[in-house]
Specification:
The protein is of the alpha+beta class. It has helices at about 35-50, 65-75, and strands at about 1-5, 5-15, 20-25, 55-60, 75-85, 90-100.
């Protein structure tokens, strides 16, 4: 799913019942709660989707706004994935978050 120039989200649903969510927000739209609301809506849809038993998202540790957004929605930090994902062709550490259908959501 993509909303041109404003914000976008991406994701995948794996055959094992796990799903991954990613999101980006243009600078001019930050600080107004748009990311929190979008993540809340897509997460509610995701955990209620038949066959999805787990949502995951990954956040760079320096990106406090993003990991606070995940925590506000109810995602639980599971740990630090060292050198997990390439960003600009350089391996980066990522916090891994998850949300299960049984978790309390805000």
């Amino acid at each position: 799913m993509t909303v041109p120039s404003a914000r976008s989200a991406s994701g995948r649903i794996a055959t094992d019942g796990g799903a991954t969510i990613g999101y980006w927000l243009a600078a001019r739209f930050r600080g107004a709660g748009a990311a929190t609301e979008a993540l809340r809506l897509i997460s509610a849809w995701g955990v209620d989707h038949p066959g999805v038993h787990r949502l995951e998202l990954y956040v760079e540790p320096w990106n406090e706004c993003s990991w606070r957004t995940a925590e506000r929605v109810g995602f639980v930090r599971e740990g630090l994935m060292r050198r997990w994902e390439a960003v600009d062709d350089e391996p980066k550490d990522m916090f891994m978050y998850s949300l299960l259908p049984s978790d309390t959501r805000s």
